[in-house]
Specification:
About 10% of the residues have low confidence. It is globular, with a radius of gyration of 21 Å. It has one domain. It is built from six helices and no strands. It is mainly alpha-helical.
Amino acid sequence: MLKFATALAVVMVISLLALGFRVGLVVAAAVPLTLAIVFVVMLATGREFDRITLGALILSLGLLVDDAIIAIEMMVVKLQEGMDRVAAATFAWHSTAAPMLTGTLVTVRSASCRWASRARVPASTRATSSGSSASRCSRPGWSRWRSRPTSA
């Protein structure tokens, strides 16, 4: 628990130093607030905190901090260009929400496909199994596209 608290403190201090006080405060506050909400929901639903949960929490916190930094930097740039606060926040939301959501969904989908393929298919049949979840997660027609001859 001491290592976790130290890592959390380091992330918060670096956010404050690298982004400035006001911007860094938003990013630094997002991490402990998210952790508190996650732990309350886990307690309420009776879930245990194990290695898989820790891995998922680390990935989600990384995405959260990255997305927060992107959105705040976009707002700061627009404020420096002379926009008012509401217009800068609106512009940042409209221009970054879809790419951040898409990136998060791609990360979640690829991770769930990877974990599902490892969990459901025996190691001896992983490479040859056509009915595995890994083949269902891959893009249809991928092997045909890769085997097409290239035109010169």
